[in-house]
Design goal:
Layout lengths: L1 H5 L2 H6 L5 H17 L13 H10 L13 H16 L9 H10 L18
């Protein structure tokens, strides 16, 4: 859940989408350090450990390569979730994202025949 929430932080913070996957790394370290030192993490129960932090730093820069398939299930899950999120936000779905979008919907038990549906650029907006 944390991964999905912060993977596009560079776009949110700067308003610029270009190269956001790598730029996100500049934002997540201070954010997660602040989180770890917050009162919410005093008990240590919710603290993000070094191993998880390293995993986040490995995965986030790879989420934009929707045309590639990774052996890392976290990378694949983030790519699928990102395609679904873009679709639900009304962002034009590129052809390269279609297999990921179909996979994300099917994982949720939703089966859509996109060929019969309305234009992918006007899906409910």
């Amino acid at each position: 859940m944390l991964l999905q929430a912060i993977h596009d932080i560079a776009t949110m913070e700067s308003g610029k989408h270009e190269n956001h996957m790598l730029r996100s790394l500049d934002y997540i370290e201070p954010l997660l350090n602040d989180f770890n030192s917050s009162s919410f993490c005093e008990s240590g129960k919710y603290k993000i450990n070094d191993e998880d932090f390293a995993l986040l730093k490995q995965i986030i820069p790879l989420h934009g390569d929707k045309d590639k398939v990774s052996d890392n299930l976290y990378v694949e899950a983030l790519r699928d979730a990102d395609a679904l999120d873009r679709y639900l936000q009304g962002v034009e779905t590129k052809e390269i994202e279609m297999p990921r979008l179909v996979n994300a919907f099917s994982q949720l038990g939703i089966y859509i025949d996109f060929e019969k549906s309305q234009s992918m650029t006007n899906h409910g907006t």
